[in-house]
Amino acid sequence: MTFSDKETGEQSVFADNVLINAGPQTFAQLFDQMWKPKDEDEGSVVKINMLLHRLPKLKTADTTSSDAFAGSFHIDEGFEQMEASWQAARSGKLPDPAPGEVYCHTLSDDSILSPELREKGYHTLTLFGLDMPWRLFESDSGEDAKRVQELYLRGLNDLCDEPFEDCVAVSRDGGKCIETKTPRDLQSEIGLDQGNIFHNALSWFYGDANQVGQWGVETKYPRVFRAGASAMRGGAVSGIPGHNAAMCILQNS
Fold it and tell me: How many domains does the chain have?
């Protein structure tokens, strides 16, 4: 049930239960609590969004572009490469080469594009850059984000049979349709704690018998539940916290 105050413009919402999907910092702010980040909760992913007017041609003659980008497209993610990138990040350096993986959502669902762009063969790419911890960008002036973007474009170019940049769409102002978000950006723009896309350190899908809460979503506030990745037995994109929050409410209703 929602009520609006015409004079102040404020809205009040009344509900029997509240499910919160936010991370620990935002949760603390909602209840006027102190919050201190934990080292293990540090985010380590860069996100790059791109709009392409067509998929690039690849160096492998036996694989089409649509087949290559239909699943997870991996860049510099061999075992030795991942070991080297991890060591570089630990020492406070940007990994070079930079490991990452690309997803082309429009190959499975092109409804995210307008009919005009679909007809012209446009596609979206989302790149997740790994081993890019928050601490590397905490005092970033924007130059590191540009450097990261250059690293991943170089990684893509190494796998393409043409300049990858030639396939990136151009906006109305003449700029390339490519957007890079560091962990610092992810916190400042959408409130992800230390830029962690999973809210905090991942937890196992089972809980200890001594841990409070049968479902791992309970809080010290009555009828307030964590339904996002920061719940116990949460993390990543499992959907477990949402399921557990629903089951907890149904069990007590």
Answer: 2
